[in-house]
Amino acid sequence: MINPLVIPELRELLREQDKDTLTEVMADLHPASVAEFSEGLSVEETWQLLNYAPIERQAEIFSFYSLGKQVEMVSGIGRERMSQLLEIMSPDDRVDLLKRLDPEVVESLMPLVAKAERQDIRHLLSYPEGSAGSVMTTEYATVPAEMTASEAIEYLRQVAPYRETIYYVYVIDEDRHLIGFVSLRDLILARASALVREIMHRDVVSVRVSEDREEAARLLARYDFLAIPVTDEQNRLVGIITHDDVIDVMQAEATEDALLMAGVSSIEENYLEADFTTVWRRRAIWLSALFVAELFTFTALASFEDAIQAVVALALFVPLCISTGGNSGSQAATLVTRALALGHVRPRDFLRVLRHELLMGLALGVTLGLIAFVRAVLTPHSVLGNADRWMLALVVSQAVAVICLWGTLVGSLLPLLFKRLGFDPGYASSPFVATFVDVTGIVIYFSIAKLYLL
Question: Is the overall model pTM greater than 0.90, yes or no?
Answer without folding.
Answer: no
